[in-house]
Structure formats: structure tokens, C-alpha cells
Amino acid sequence: MPARASPWHGHVLITGAGSGIGAELARAAARRGATALSLVDLNAGAAKTVAAELQAAHPGLAVSIFETDVSSYPAVKKAVDGSVAAHGPVCHRCGHQAAGL
């Protein structure tokens, strides 16, 4: 029987990725085979810390940081557009931030 592809393959965009559930989702996505992560968080410093951890643990993983206020539609659109430009189409989006996306 052929091996099944990981449901976390490809490009994963995660909001609230600088801490808590969002950071844990980023770690899980990296462990399960994501090829690219877009970490979206209002706290870019926290997201950069998570990105550095993930890149050290998963060489070859592409990670981009988008400092974004997800309560602002124009800011979210800019982050998504930048994410797609950097890594191609988003395969999965996980929203775990304080405000609705």
C-alpha cells in the first residue's frame, strides 16, 4: 500500500504563531512535513524566535515572518499576499490569534 502524504504538506500559514497554540501548531506542522511556514503574529520578535527554533530543528524548512494586526483586513491581505509570493499557494491556514481573521 502506498504511503499517504502528510496532511501538513506544503505551505502552512499560521496566525498567532509567536506563542501558545499557534507556536505549537507551527512546531507540529514542521514535524509533520510542511515545506514552508508563514508565521503571522503581531509580535514579530516572538515569531522570529519560533522561526529560528524551527529552522534549527528542520534544516531546509522555509519560514517567513509577517508582523500583522489580524483585526485589520488590509494588514491581513498584505500578509497573505506576501506569504503566497514567498512560498506559493497556501495549503493550510490555522488561525489562533486573539482577534478574528
Question: Overview of this structure, please?
Answer:
It contains 3 helices and 4 strands. α2 (44-57) links the parallel β2 (36-41) and β3 (62-67). Helices cover 41% and strands 21% of the residues. The protein has a 4-stranded parallel beta sheet with strand order 3-2-1-4, with helices on both faces. It is of the alpha/beta class. The chain has one domain (17-95). The chain has helices at 20-31, 44-57, 73-87; strands spanning 11-15, 36-41, 62-67, 92-95. The longest helix has 15 residues, at 73-87. The mean pLDDT is 89.
Relevant terms:
101 residues; alpha/beta; 4-stranded parallel β-sheet; globular
Number of helices: 3
Low-confidence stretches: none
**Binned strand content:** 15-25%
**Mean pLDDT reading:** 89
Report the radius of gyration as a whole number of Å.
13 Å
Instruction: Write the H/E string, N to C.
Output: EHEHEHE
Number of strands: 4
Number of domains: 1
Described by the principal axes of the CA atoms, the overall outline is: globular
Q: Biggest sheet, open or closed, and with what strands and sense?
A: 4 strands, parallel
Structural class category: alpha/beta
Tell me the distance between the termini.
Answer: 39 Å
Strand order in space, largest sheet: 3-2-1-4
The percent of residues in helical segments reads 40-55%
